[in-house]
Amino acid sequence: MGLGYALKTLCEDSGPRAVAAHLAEGLKPGSKMRKKCDIYTTPLAEITDAFFDMTRRGSGHAVHCLRALQRGQAHLLEATEANDASAFSNITGQLLVTIIKEQYENPSFILKSRVMKVANPGSNLQEHKIPYLSDVVDKPKRLAQMEPYPATRFFESWVTMPPPEKYGEVCRVSMEMMLSDYTGQAQRSAQSVGKVTGYQEEERIGKVVLGLSGTDALPMTPYNWNGNALNTYVTTAGVGSYVNRIVSNTVLSSDQVNNIEQLFYRQVDPITGRRILAMPRQIICVPEKRWAMKRILTATMERRGNQASDTGILNESPNPIEIGYELLASPILQALLQTETTQTSGIVLSPAQVKEFLIFGDLSQAFGIREVYPMKTEQAPALAPAEFEQDIVLQVKASLYNVPFVYDPRWAGQSTAEVT
Fold first, then answer.
1. CA distance 377 to 34
2. What DSSP letter does each residue of 165-217 carry, written as one string?
3. Which of 22, 100, 320, 340 could form a disulfide with 194, with the two C-beta atoms 3.0–4.6 Å apart?
């Protein structure tokens, strides 16, 4: 028995509400239903046939029921058919919504789950300042007996978040597709909506994390501190008192990893000048560099010296890399590096330079997403204009409203093989 007929039987036995509850639970990854039925390949025409009995009663009856759904008149059908029509609409919509959400959450999109989420402040959709709290300005004072404790203070500073941007697409299923699609075309369309929505968001965050700019870049510099628009990665300290970019650093051993880590040890609070003790947690590389980086990070032993030299000394020691880095590789970010230009150098990276391009950082401390609302899916109600004009039976929309930004570049470091 196929998925459509199983759901139709459940609808007849328990009613549409039970079907909706069962379906919501059954579509979860790892559920028994998901193990038995592939929602990506179950044709919508099969479900249509199961609920409206096209095989026995003909496609004309199914068209009649689908038009009743379009016009919001399912309640005017006979009692059993009305229940079936109501359940059918909920089921087909829920299938496409589930597919869109799953494709949006594709594991290849590595950034959105690791950067800081900042809820949009009220109804403001323009630039917005959020506090950047430095360390307290004063140091604790040595106190004499009975001397009162002195009060200290924070220095006023802030980061300006850029205005949020709304993105979205609609997956539309026509009456013809609902009646005759035995190839899973509707599901592929829903997959595409979810995948493209997540892919575009990953690109937008990726440009900020990588420190890239391009023809469709954000309308302002992603890092804006105390009213100063600054580059995310710099080799020379400026207004923000940070240096977090190292050039001519092809990572071949722990020595080059140490060069990058030293950038973090030297980071200071821009107000007090004291070290902030920033440390990276993740390394972002291109897939071509992934295995080489994994060997460097997980090696159990390291040898130094030349046994054939005059001294004849060869030192063996455990791997000196102590931080348990999360190694992340993304073909999407590699594509950005191949087509975009860096803010600091302004030159196109060669294939060899793309391969050696690395980001070290704590993504949750360095970067954020200002979010009016996260990705959401909605099913269009009956009587939508497209239903009347184009015989669109089912519409599912995916949309999100956010913008990525740099919160604190002192928690990110860029390593590149560029010479300049």
1. 20
2. EEEEEEEEEEHHHHHH--S-HHHHHHHHHHHHHHHHHHHHHHHHHHTEE-TT-
3. 100
- Per the CB < 8 A criterion, the answer to whether 272 and 314 are in contact is no
Contact 333/346 with Cβ under 8 angstroms? Answer: no
**Residue 42 placed within a domain:** yes
Domain that holds residue 73: 1-104
| Total number of domains in the chain | 1
Indicate whether 99 belongs to any domain: yes
Q: Which one-letter amino acid corresponds to residue 331?
A: P
Nearest in space to 248 (alpha carbons), one of 331, 146, 353: 353
Instruction: Report the interhelical angle of 79-104 vs 16-26 (nearest 10°).
Output: 20
* Contact indicator for 197, 167 with CB cutoff of 8 Å: yes
What is the identity of the amino acid at 264? F
Structure tokens at 187: 């599901």
DSSP per residue over 57-114, as a string?
Answer: H-HHHHHHHHHHHHTT-GGGS-HHHHHHHHHHHHHHHHHHHHHHHHHHT-TT--STTT
Least confident segment among 7-11, 145-149, 322-326: 7-11
Q: How many helices and strands in the chain, by DSSP H and E?
A: 15, 17
pLDDT digits (tens, 9 = 90+) for 10-65: 666 666 666 666 666 666 666 666 666 666 767 676 666 666 655 555 455 556 55
Task: Render pLDDT for 329-388 as a digit per residue (tens, 0 to 9).
Answer: 999 999 988 886 544 445 578 889 899 999 999 999 999 999 999 999 887 765 555 555
Cα diameter, the chain: 97
282-285/326-329 β-pairing: parallel
398 forms bridges with which residues in the sheet?
169, 377
What is d(CA 47, CA 28) in angstroms, rounded to the nearest whole number?
19
Q: How many residues does the chain have?
A: 420
pLDDT tens, 70-93? 555 555 455 455 455 566 666 777
Cβ neighbours of residue 318 closer than 8 Å, sequence gap 6 or more: 300, 301, 302
Q: What is d(CA 70, CA 58) in angstroms, rounded to the nearest whole number?
A: 19
CA–CA dist 412, 283 (Å, integer): 10
Q: Residue 204: name the closest of 404, 420, 414, 1 by CA.
A: 404
The 10 Å CB-count burial string (b at 16+, else e) for 291-305 is eebeebbeeeebeee
Distance from chain centroid for Cα 316: 42
Closest CA to 229 of 221, 217, 239: 221
Residue 376, burial from CB neighbour count under 10 angstroms (0-12, 13-18, 19+): middle
Q: CA-CA distance, 370 to 222, in Å (whole number)?
A: 12
Q: For residue 76, tell me if it sits in a domain.
A: yes
Q: Which two tokens stand for residue 148?
A: 């009162």
